[in-house]
Each structure stands twice: as C-alpha cells, then as structure tokens.
C-alpha cells in the first residue's frame, strides 16, 4: 500500500478542523467541465470585515493518453501561474512537474520543478525552487500501518538548512494517530482522528512550543455528524474557549452551501465573533 505524501499524513484530522469553516468570509466556487475534459474553476472570497475581494480563475486539462496535465491560473493579485505534470510516463509511480508564475504588475517571479515517486510503502518528493534558490525534500515510509516521515529544506545561497520536520504515526482501518516534531523539534503536535461510526467522526490535537513553555499546551477537540445523505454538522472547541460550528447542506446535485460561525465563549457580549458562508457549484 502506498503511504500518503508527507503533507497529507495528518490530512484526516486537519480536514476535520479546517474544512467547511469559512470564518469571516463569503466564498463562492464555480467549477465546470467540458465534454473534452477541460475544467474551469472560479474561486472568489470577500472578507466580511474589510470588504476586500480576492478571486482566481483556473483552467485544467488532462491528457490521459500521454499522462499529461496542464494547469493555468490568474488571480486578482495579477499573478499568472502555469504548471505541467507528466505521470507514469518514464516509470511507474514517477511524476514530474514544472511550474512557473509571474506578476503582471510586479517583479514577482517563481520557477519550480518537482519530482514525486511513489510505490508500496514509500512516497518521496523533491521540490527545487530555481529562483530562490532552494531545495525541499520529504519522504514517507510505511509498514503494517506504521508511518514515519521527514521533511528538509536547504537554502543554496546561504548553505544552511532552513527547515527540518519529522512525523511518526499509525493508521488503522478507522483511525490515525500522529506525533509531529516541527521547526527542528521545537514545536510538537500530537493528533488523533477516528471514524467512530458511519455518521460520526471525532478528532483531537495538542500543540506544545518548546521555545515558549510559558504558553503551555494548546488543544482542540472536533467532531462531525452526518445528518443524512445531503447534510452534516461540525463543531470544534479549543482550550481558550473558541467554539466553531458549521452546517453544510447539498441543496441539489452539484450545489453545496456551508454556514459557519466562530464564537469566543469568554466574550459572548462583545463583537468578537466571526460568521461566514461558502457556496459551491459543480457541473
């Protein structure tokens, strides 16, 4: 079995705490796919407090015969991005990516290449930023449910290691538990996720900053409950009294609405709360 890439080792618990919570914003996503496989995605978000609007138009085409995928995007920051991927062409499990971006109204530029390789019990990635220049590499290995991963970033100009992260975990049929050591083992996170039943998910995570011991341990608890095939609710609470609630409803096939609120239970009478909504269309 192929393990997740390093960024996705904690994906189940991260999704439980982050997805479907559009706090402080109004979001809209429209995605359509043509008969020949070209997909168009428009994302937009307005900050409720400031009124600022950001949006992005993305076009994606997959040439399945040759294993090629082309992606282009343009956002309101006037940043144009292009990416080409080729998978399983030279070797099974090998994917090559080349991406670049350019600011039309600024000098912002980026040029990156990435190599992904996956097989049973192994997922490795190398990402080279040609303009920084820097190299980031990560690897995940697995065996009988046990997971181990590491991530390293190296700055070619300074000749210094700029990031070292590591993760240990175990993934069972319906649960995962992970321990991460980030920032050169100065920031630790312990996370747990379980699908309790077909309609109930639960998770918890705790974070401790070794460089800031007086801050103590920050902790969160979260859950998701499926009401029926078209609706579910989510809730989360942390150790400083912030309560997050969300409700997601499929209004019709391809149309989904999410409503969410983040409430400071220690200041219920104050204007310290955030509301938000997200509407997604797909055809």
From TrEMBL:
Compartment(s) where it occurs, according to its Swiss-Prot or TrEMBL record: Mitochondrion outer membrane
InterPro entries, alphabetized: Porin_dom_sf, Porin_Euk, Porin_Euk/Tom40
Gene Ontology molecular functions: porin activity; voltage-gated monoatomic anion channel activity
Family: Belongs to the eukaryotic mitochondrial porin family.
Keywords in alphabetical order: Ion transport, Membrane, Mitochondrion, Mitochondrion outer membrane, Porin, Transmembrane, Transmembrane beta strand, Transport
A cellular component annotation (GO) from this entry: mitochondrial outer membrane
Designated name of the protein: Mitochondrial porin
Keyword Transport applies: yes
Gene this protein is translated from: POR1
Lineage: Eukaryota, Fungi, Fungi incertae sedis, Zoopagomycota, Kickxellomycotina
First-listed, main subcellular location of the protein, grouped into a coarse class: mitochondrion
Keyword Protein transport among record annotations: no
């Amino acid at each position: 079995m192929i393990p997740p890439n390093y960024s996705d080792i904690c994906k189940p618990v991260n999704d439980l705490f982050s997805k479907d919570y559009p706090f402080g914003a109004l979001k809209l996503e429209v995605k359509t796919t043509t008969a020949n496989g070209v997909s168009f995605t428009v994302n937009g978000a307005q900050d409720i407090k400031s009124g600022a609007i950001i949006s992005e138009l993305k076009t994606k085409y997959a040439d399945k015969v040759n294993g090629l995928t082309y992606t282009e995007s343009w956002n309101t920051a006037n940043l144009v991005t292009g990416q080409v991927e080729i998978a399983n062409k030279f070797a099974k499990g090998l994917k090559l990516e080349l991406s670049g971006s350019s600011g039309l109204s600024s000098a912002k530029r980026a040029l990156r290449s990435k190599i992904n390789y996956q097989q049973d019990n192994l997922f490795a990635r190398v990402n080279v930023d040609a303009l920084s220049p820097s190299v980031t590499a990560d690897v995940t290995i697995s065996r009988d449910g046990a997971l181990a991963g590491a991530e390293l970033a190296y700055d070619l100009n300074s000749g210094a290691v700029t990031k070292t992260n590591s993760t240990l975990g175990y993934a069972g049929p319906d649960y995962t538990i992970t321990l991460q050591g980030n920032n050169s083992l100065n920031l630790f996170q312990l996370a747990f996720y379980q699908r309790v039943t077909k309609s109930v998910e639960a998770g918890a995570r705790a974070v401790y900053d070794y460089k800031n011991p007086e801050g103590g341990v920050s902790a969160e608890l979260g859950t998701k409950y499926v009401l029926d095939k078209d609706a579910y609710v989510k809730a989360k609470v942390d150790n400083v009294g912030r309560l997050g609630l969300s409700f997601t409803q499929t209004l019709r096939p391809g149309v989904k609405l999410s409503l969410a609120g983040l409430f400071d239970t220690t200041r219920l009478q104050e204007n310290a709360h955030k509301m938000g909504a997200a509407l997604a269309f797909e055809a």
